[in-house]
Amino acid sequence: MAYEFNRQLKDKGLIEGTLVLRYDNCFDDRHDTKFQPRWEGPFFIKTKFKNGSYQLMDLSGKVHKTKVNVWRLRKYWQRIEDIDDQQE
């Protein structure tokens, strides 16, 4: 069963250094957290492993020890307003 699931995972083209968001599935079974954010981040991809998992690093440089599967990641797109604020 795990083999079939892993076989269906698609490579999202995420490489080391890419900014991503991580899905937080602790709210999936609860109905009282309807308006809680489901995605955490952004994080940098530190290491990509062959089995479809990634090691993440937050913006301050702290490396997370746990690996995250590719289905829990989404590419982070920074807003233009955020870029303009940083340049000023």
Question: In short, what is this structure?
Answer:
The protein is an alpha+beta fold and 88 residues long. Helices cover 17% and strands 35% of the residues. A hairpin with a 4-residue loop joins strand 3 (53-58) and strand 4 (63-69).
Descriptive overview:
By secondary structure, the protein is of the alpha+beta class. It has a single domain (2-87), classed as SH3 type barrels. The protein contains two helices and five strands; from the N terminus they run αβββββα. It has helices at residues 2-8, 80-87; strands at 19-23, 39-48, 53-58, 63-69, 73-75. A five-stranded antiparallel sheet has the order 4-3-2-1-5, with no helix packed on it. A hairpin with a 4-residue loop joins β2 (39-48) and β3. It is globular and about 50 Å long. The protein starts with a helix and ends with a helix. The relative contact order is 0.24. The mean pLDDT is 83.
Features:
88 residues; alpha+beta; SH3 type barrels; five-stranded antiparallel sheet
